[in-house]
């Protein structure tokens, strides 16, 4: 990966990062759309096939920050190219190896590399635009992920049944290789500060002010996932929507809302990231309480699902922007942490919703999500006045740490 990057416009770089994020998240979502096919092809149970999804999420949540810590001194261009190259190569494992265990290990590594790539993509995106447009640059990368979440599973289902599940991973390798070649030409050099050390970055990245905002991220997505995990049975038993096409319509509505929200959220993050977190948290809590109280109305539930997607993912650029800014010199490492917080929230929210159902009823999962989201509102308010550390006085601040947020 020594191809020399040529000078290019920010639009081209941001477009490349969008496509790369979209491709990586589509590759992750492919498995969800082909669980039954993978289960049959590898002669394992459906829950075992589902563990491939868990493995990738765990790799991203834990391995992403670890790899980010190990690569703190490296140019972000080099990190992006090498992580993308290995990501593509690892997708050859299910194509060439007929075994479940190795595939599972590969999924952990794939998740970790994806977490590293996305963190480096955020740093690169914010380094090539004026500081006042950092939130919008972050939103471009997040929009790639959100678009893939909406399209990845249906694309996986279509490809899997049309070409076979292994052929779907061949498609990932082909598309990924094309993105990698484009990246080698388009991506600029984004060096980190010569003074950057892993220990110093850790001190700033895990500072209390950063951990407080990460807690907001975790709570928000725990609240969303507590309800979203059980949305389909809720629609059937409470709302009275059981037709496959109608349920698909609700899920598509949510997917479109997350895509629109993530794209629009960048401008709000640039205007006032802290206020965006507060208002978005209120929107999530209000939509979940509304769903719980008026869940027998399909129109009301559809509106609540729409607001949930818009507000939930609309906050994502502000979360990333706020965390990176509060970390100051620890920005390259901190850029990987919101994904970990979100994955922890998703896991915790699913468990909380399931426990609520076991101890009460199906609507209790929605109420549990609403209560967690209400806690997120309080946390967002409490973190409203947190400020980044003072700027370095030696004039050598890292480019990725020079992103002021309206707080």
TrEMBL record:
Protein name, per record: MFS transporter
Q: Name one Pfam family in it.
A: MFS_1
Q: Any transmembrane segments, and where?
A: 37-67, 79-97, 103-125, 137-163, 169-190, 210-231, 243-264, 276-294, 300-319, 331-356, 362-382
Annotated Low complexity bias: 398-407
Query: SUPFAM superfamilies in the record, alphabetically?
Result: MFS general substrate transporter (SSF103473)
Cell compartments where the protein resides:
Cell membrane
| Region (Disordered) residue spans | 387-407
Q: How does it sit in the membrane?
A: Multi-pass membrane protein
Supply the InterPro entries for this chain: MFS, MFS_dom, MFS_Efflux_Transporters, MFS_trans_sf
Chief location of this protein within or outside the cell: membrane
Q: Which UniProt keywords apply?
A: Cell membrane, Membrane, Transmembrane, Transmembrane helix
| Domain Major facilitator superfamily (MFS) profile residue range list | 13-387
- CDD domains cross-referenced by the UniProt entry: MFS_NepI_like
PANTHER family given in the database record: PURINE EFFLUX PUMP PBUE (PTHR43124:SF10)
């Amino acid at each position: 990966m020594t191809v020399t990057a040529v000078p290019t416009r920010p639009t081209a770089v941001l477009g490349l990062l969008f496509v790369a994020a979209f491709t990586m998240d589509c590759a992750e979502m492919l498995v969800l759309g082909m669980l039954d096919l993978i289960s049959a092809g590898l002669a394992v149970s459906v829950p075992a096939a589902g563990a491939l999804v868990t493995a990738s999420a765990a790799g991203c949540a834990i391995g992403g920050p670890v790899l980010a810590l190990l690569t703190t001194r490296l140019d972000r261009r080099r990190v992006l190219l090498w992580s993308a190259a290995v990501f593509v190569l690892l997708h050859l494992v299910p194509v060439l190896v007929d075994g479940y265990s190795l595939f599972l290990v590969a999924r952990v590594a794939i998740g970790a590399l994806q977490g590293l790539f996305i963190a480096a993509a955020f740093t690169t995106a914010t380094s090539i635009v004026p500081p006042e447009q950092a939130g919008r640059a972050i939103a471009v990368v997040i929009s790639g992920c959100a678009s893939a979440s909406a399209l990845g599973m249906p694309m996986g289902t279509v490809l899997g049944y049309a070409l076979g599940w292994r052929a779907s991973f061949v498609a990932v390798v082909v598309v990924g290789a094309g993105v990698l070649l484009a990246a080698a030409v388009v991506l600029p050099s984004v060096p980190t500060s010569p003074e950057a050390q892993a220990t110093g970055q850790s001190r700033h990245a895990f500072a209390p002010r950063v951990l407080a905002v990460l807690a907001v991220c975790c709570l928000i997505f725990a609240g969303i996932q507590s309800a979203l995990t059980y949305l389909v049975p809720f629609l059937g038993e409470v709302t009275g929507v059981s037709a496959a096409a109608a349920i698909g319509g609700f899920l598509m509505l949510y997917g479109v809302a997350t895509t629109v929200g993530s794209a629009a959220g960048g401008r709000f993050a640039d205007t006032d990231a802290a206020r965006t977190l507060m208002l978005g948290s209120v929107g999530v809590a209000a939509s979940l309480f509304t769903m719980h109280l008026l869940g027998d109305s399909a129109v009301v539930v559809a509106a609540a699902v729409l607001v949930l997607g818009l507000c939930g993912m609309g906050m994502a650029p502000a979360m990333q922007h706020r965390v990176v800014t509060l970390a100051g010199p620890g920005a390259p490492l901190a850029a990987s942490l919101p994904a970990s917080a979100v994955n922890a929230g998703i896991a915790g929210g699913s468990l909380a919703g399931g426990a609520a159902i076991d101890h009460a009823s199906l609507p209790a999962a929605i109420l549990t999500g609403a209560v967690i989201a209400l806690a997120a509102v309080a946390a967002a308010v409490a973190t409203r006045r947190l400020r980044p550390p003072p700027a370095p006085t030696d004039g050598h601040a890292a480019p990725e740490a020079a992103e002021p947020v309206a707080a």
